[in-house]
Amino acid sequence: MAYLAGDIGGTKTHLALYQEEKGRMVKLKDEKYPSQKYPNLKTIVKTFLKGEDISVKKGCFGIAGPVKKGKSQATNLPWLVDSEVLMGELQIEKVALINDLEANAYGLNMLEKDELYTLNAGDPEAEGNQAMVSAGTGLGEGGIFYDGKRHIPFASEGGHADFAPRNETEDELLRFLRKKFGHVSYERILSGPGLYNLYQFVVETKKERETEENLKKIQEGDSPRLISEMGLSGASKACTKTLEFFASIYGSEAGNIALKMLALGGIYLGGGIAPKLLTILKRGDFMRSFTEKGRFSKLLEQIPVHVVLNDNTALLGATYYAKHII
């Protein structure tokens, strides 16, 4: 039996075809497509499956956006995706549509130990709910409920909740972003575009000086990538300051989620940004902000925190869901 898995994001759509062989899932094909260049998901899937002489029985797509009754209006794409329509047009027996954070969380079941980096070991016997926070094109957040025997992921749109400043500098950041966007969510900071928003704040409020050459390069290029590279290498003090701000606010929001979900079993950092900024996350600002929660600081110190290193985790989770859930 063949399974079709998809990770649908605002930047790219990643599809893979798996087949079960002797109890193992073997990848047959794997392609990435620029989401914005296609009118809908159906077109991408048909392109992906063209020429494949294999019968796909089940498919599951993790999508960046809320899913209601098998339908989703993607958050960062002009697509309405409908699982019933996909079943009919693609002639697949069963198709499920789940939130991308659910897919990532289900993917944890298929990771090896070396595909996680532990920022905080916490309590070695930690047990209970878990949660995932994933900064990438957007900010995804999801819970993983523990029923005493197994962990069950569920979606949320917590990344769009109000940004809560913790000090005068972050008060200033909130005012800066409010002028640009009106409503300021955590996603306006903890995402690829958010990195650029933070960088603009650092430069325009003179938290750190920037050269005209660097400024122009970042404005005209792939801003998130350049800010990360120049910040990590030390080529730009403004970029380094941006990454430090990012890590601190990321840690604070991860701590917020840990409290809201009572995620005593662990926090997982998914998405594409955390693995790239591991050097910054390891410096201490992330975990300091994670645990600085007043009377609950000691509790948070005991929570394990892991960075997911496998960037195919959502695909693995979609495959897991297709095989075990639908």
From TrEMBL:
It is found in: Cytoplasm. GO terms for molecular function: glucokinase activity. The keyword ATP-binding applies. CDD domains: ASKHA_NBD_GLK. It catalyses: D-glucose + ATP = D-glucose 6-phosphate + ADP + H(+). Pfam families: Glucokinase. Its EC number is 2.7.1.2. Keywords: ATP-binding, Cytoplasm, Glycolysis, Kinase, Nucleotide-binding, Transferase. Belongs to the bacterial glucokinase family. This is Glucokinase. The keyword Cytoplasm applies. The gene is glk. SUPFAM superfamilies: Actin-like ATPase domain. ATP binds at G6, D7, I8, G9, G10, T11.
